[in-house]
């Protein structure tokens, strides 16, 4: 698989997520988020938005080289 990847493992009570630059190339370490309003309000908007935006920028740079 090419391009940026966000892996999410959903479990009871929490989810673990991690970003990759490409297959098997980590962009971040594994993080956890609790399935509570506070957990989603606190972690997802700030952390994932930042990482997804960075991965989109990285992807655009890779596409521009092709």
What's a quick, concise take on this entry?
The protein is α+β, with helices and mostly antiparallel strands. The chain is 44% helix and 33% strand.
Describe the structure.
Helices cover 44% and strands 33% of the residues. The chain is α+β, with helices and mostly antiparallel strands. Strand 2 and strand 3 (25-26) form a beta hairpin. The chain has 1 helix and 4 strands. Strands 1, 2, 3 and 4 form a 4-stranded antiparallel beta sheet that branches. It has one domain. It starts with a strand and ends with a helix.
Shape: elongated
H/E order of the elements? EEEEH
The Cα radius of gyration reads 13 Å
By DSSP, the count of extended strands is 4
By secondary-structure content and strand pairing, the structural class works out as: alpha+beta
Percent of residues in helices comes to 40-55%
Number of domains: 1
End-to-end CA span: 16 Å
Strand portion: 25-35%
Low-confidence stretches: none
Overall pLDDT level: 76
Counted by DSSP, the helix tally is: 1
Largest sheet: 4 strands, antiparallel
Features:
66 residues; elongated
Topology at a glance:
Elements lengths: L4 E7 L2 E9 L2 E2 L4 E4 L2 H29 L1
Antiparallel strand pairs: 1-2, 2-3, 2-4
């Amino acid at each position: 698989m090419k391009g940026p990847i966000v892996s999410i493992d959903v479990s009871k009570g929490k989810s673990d997520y991690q970003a990759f630059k490409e297959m098997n190339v980590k962009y971040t370490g594994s993080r956890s988020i609790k399935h509570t309003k506070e957990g989603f309000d606190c972690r997802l908007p700030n952390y994932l938005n930042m990482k997804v935006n960075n991965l989109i920028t990285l992807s655009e740079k890779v596409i521009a080289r092709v």
